Amino acid sequence: MNPLIIVTGGTKGIGRAIADRFVAEGFDAVVCARSVEGIQVSDGTAPGLLPVGADLSTREGVNSLLDYIKSLNRPVDVLVNNTGVFQPGQIHNEAEGTFEQLMNTNVASAYHITRGLVSDMISRRQGHIFMMCSTASITPYTNGGSYCISKFALLGMSRVLREELKPHGVKVTAILPGATLTASWEGTDLPEERFMKPDDVANSAWAAYSLSKSAVVEEILIRPQLGDI
After folding, report:
1. CB-based contacts of 36, cutoff 8 Å, min separation 6
2. Distance (Å, rounded) from C-alpha 169 to C-alpha 116?
3. pLDDT per residue over 140-168, tens digit each?
4. Left (φ > 0), alpha (ψ -120 to 50) or beta: where does 142 sit?
5. What percentage of the chain exceeds 70 in pLDDT?
6. Any idea what DSSP says for residue 180?
7. Helical (H) or strand (E) element with 8
8. What is the DSSP letter of 167?
9. Backbone dihedral region of 9: left (phi > 0), alpha (psi from -120 to 50 degrees) or beta?
10. Residue 159, exposed/middle/buried by CB under 10 A (0-12, 13-18, 19+)?
């Protein structure tokens, strides 16, 4: 049986690049997003993608994903908490409800999905959890508002999980990417070479996963060569 990776927000951008990288290494990948139209489903004869449509900003959506994963009756080897949303603004003037939307999507989803899957990892003393943080987890900026708050919180959760899971053989890695050329940057006037590529992040995740059991990469900070945008 192929090892199994779960990637939330896994149908495009960094999430899709991570799913494709692990599939290329022999994994099956459950990819979850609000819309999974156009995703080719694995027929079970070769490693591939297993798409699940769910809105992870809600508990109903999280529970739907967890129910699907449990229906596979397979151990989860890797969990990538990548789902996220960005809304520009400042704390004093961003739209009402922005804080709740970003905290539910960017933080609460990772919290509840991890809680739903980590017990089995602990019992098997095996597993790797990646938390998709951001340079916004450590560098506040004036148009970040609730987004920065949510990413600071996600990094804090990653560090707490790392301490909790140390004695149980489960690894936790926080990834903090800078500006990466994904759909969120569509329409920018900046040249492509000013950005990182999603594959850069995916290859870093695979390298961290590939270490021996006695080593863990706790945090990966990746920025464009010319620095933050």
Report:
1. 11, 51, 52, 53
2. 17
3. 988 999 999 999 999 999 999 999 999 99
4. alpha
5. 95
6. B
7. strand 4-8
8. G
9. left
10. middle
Which of 44-58, 181-195, 208-222 is least confident? Answer: 181-195
What is the C-alpha to C-alpha distance for residues 214 and 201, in angstroms, rounded to an integer? 23
- 3-class SS letters over 95-158: CCCHHHHHHHHHHHHHHHHHHHHHHHHHHHCCCEEEEECCHHHCCCCCCCHHHHHHHHHHHHHH
CATH T-level fold of 4-222: Rossmann fold (3.40.50)
pTM above 0.90, yes or no: yes
Strand partners of residue 222: 177
Cα-based angle 134, 180, 200 (whole degrees, multiple of 5): 95
Mean pLDDT computed over 125-154? 96
Handedness of CA 142, 99, 177, 53 (dihedral sign): negative
Domains of the chain by residue range? 4-222
The angle subtended at Cα 26 by Cα 23 and Cα 31, nearest 5°, is 30
Burial 173-191 (b: 16+ CB within 10 A, else e): bbbbbbbbbbeeeeeeeee
From residue 196, alpha-carbon distances to 173, 175, 187 in Å are 19, 14, 16
Q: Tokens 């996220």 appear where? A: 84
Instruction: Report the C-alpha dihedral over residues 143, 147, 152, 155, rounded to 10 degrees.
Output: -140
